[in-house]
TrEMBL record:
Keywords from the named record: 4Fe-4S, Electron transport, Iron, Iron-sulfur, Metal-binding, Repeat, Transport
Record-level GO cellular component terms: membrane
Protein name listed in UniProt: 4Fe-4S ferredoxin-type domain-containing protein
SUPFAM superfamilies tied to this protein: alpha-helical ferredoxin, Nqo1 FMN-binding domain-like, Nqo1 middle domain-like
Keyword Iron appears in the UniProt entry: yes
Organism, scientific name: Enterococcus malodoratus ATCC 43197
């Protein structure tokens, strides 16, 4: 019953790439872990969910834990989130459910699912593997709120997100899926600077874009935040670098100091990934022809793209993450995957002392000025026009089940995942008339409906 409700509601993971939740839950597990670490600096959405919807989330968590037959149900969050922890523990006590709270240190990327598995269980997910291989299933805390709504018969139509940075009124927004970023910025009082760039997501793993690209962006099921910032900042330099420029600089400037490797979170839990070796390999490679099935190139496939190597580690201003991403793309084009083996996995002895505090990220990125902004107020908004993508998740795009001229209500099915394909259904987020159907579906609210 619960799995059917999750499927019908079109729920995908709120904390990452949008893996269809019902597919993840079609298993049994020892640990069910809730990611409530709010991994990225500046984002406050998960804080809001824990503070204001703890009872709803705990109810959903307990139900999913029962579905998965989990022996341990754990909410993993940062130990200094005292207000949030109090809310969660009170809800757990009131509902008398077998859920516990695990308090993590304040480091980045505490919310990476494989890092969280290691923190909670001491187990290392195999390189190229997923948490269920070590008896764990992980979901984001905001996903649990969507599951609670699914239990009430409500489909995913709206999204909670943080808008902050160089805006007049930083806040939490609740808007229909498909709402334009322009509308979100207006709801935050507009930008405080004339010429800006933006991050869709967090400072480290979000997607950067220019002011010209901003109007084309819309809120999806996985949008966690919008950060407005000055163009001169460090992140903009990352955006501007082109692949040949990155490679040439790496060839001429890499000093093989190993810091990119030593601070790599996946290396620290025992994965055989060595970014400095990938950088060194560039010096003897014709790009892109020689990127092939090579043991060192395959190490790049283990990169989680957290960005520590280039934002914090490298003293030469090189971009190991971007190089890894490029190598991964070339290998994917050739159908080359990481080959799992039974190699022993030994965490590094210095891991505990090499964790990166989020404040260092903000200092390096030029975002420290926004660290103390108060982002607690919620603004609910109902858009007059939405542009809903048919692909907001890992897997195949949905197929439209409506056409131009149809009238729909919020919650109506408008896109169905192809049969037997990985995906999640898409629903109308406002009442209105369908005015366009392509890779996305446009709905306009009409007063005379």
């Amino acid at each position: 019953m619960l799995l059917e409700q999750i499927t019908s509601a079109g729920i995908v993971g709120c904390g990452g790439a949008g893996f269809p939740t019902a597919v993840k839950y079609n298993t049994k597990t020892e640990y069910f872990i809730i990611n409530a670490a709010e991994c990225e600096p500046l984002l406050k959405t998960d804080h809001y969910v824990m503070n204001h919807f703890a009872k709803e989330c705990v109810q959903a968590i307990a139900a999913v834990g029962k579905l998965l037959e989990a022996k341990q149900i754990v909410i993993a969050t940062k130990g200094h989130y005292t207000k949030e922890i109090n809310a969660l523990e009170q809800a757990i006590q009131e509902q008398k459910v077998p859920v516990s709270v695990f308090k993590m240190n304040n480091f980045y990327p505490a919310g990476d699912e494989q890092i969280m598995v290691f923190e909670v269980t001491g187990r290392t997910v195999p390189p190229g593997g997923i948490p269920i291989e070590v008896g764990c299933v992980i979901s984001n805390i905001a996903t649990m709120l969507n599951i609670y709504h699914a239990q009430q018969g409500e489909n995913v139509t709206h999204k909670l997100l943080t808008i902050t940075g160089a805006v007049k009124e930083p806040k939490i927004l609740e808007v229909p899926i498909g709402t334009s970023f322009d509308d979100c910025l207006a709801l935050a009082g507009g930008a405080t600077i004339d010429d800006f760039m933006f991050i869709n997501g967090g400072p480290m793993m979000g997607k950067t874009g220019t002011q010209d690209e901003f109007p084309q962006q819309v809120v999806t099921k996985t949008t966690s935040g919008i950060i407005i910032m000055e163009k001169r900042d460090f992140i903009y330099e990352l955006l501007e670098k082109e692949i040949p420029q990155m490679i040439n600089k790496a060839r001429s400037s890499c000093i093989q100091c190993r810091l990119c490797t030593e601070l790599c979170p996946r290396y620290q839990i025992g994965h055989p990934i060595h970014p400095h070796r990938v950088m060194r390999h560039l010096t003897i490679t014709e790009i892109p022809d020689d990127i092939d099935d090579d043991p060192i190139w395959r190490e790049a496939l283990l990169c989680c793209e957290c960005g520590i190597c280039e934002t914090i580690a490298c003293p030469m201003g090189l971009l190991p993450r971007q190089v890894n991403k490029y190598v991964k793309q070339r290998l994917a084009e050739k159908g080359i995957r990481y080959q799992k083996n039974d190699q022993p996995l030994t965490p590094t002895l210095m891991r505990e002392y090499q964790q990166v505090p989020p404040v260092k990220i903000l200092l390096k990125d030029g975002l420290k000025q926004y660290a103390d902004l108060k982002v607690e107020d919620l603004l609910k908004h109902e858009s007059t026009t939405v542009n809903i993508p048919l692909k907001m998740h890992i897997g195949a795009p949905c197929e439209p089940v409506i056409q131009v001229g149809d009238h729909v209500k919020a919650g109506d099915l408008i896109g169905r995942k192809p049969e037997k394909a990985l995906g999640a259904d898409v629903h109308a987020s406002i009442d209105g008339m369908v005015t366009a159907v392509s890779a996305s579906i446009t709905i306009e609210r009409r007063d005379n409906q």
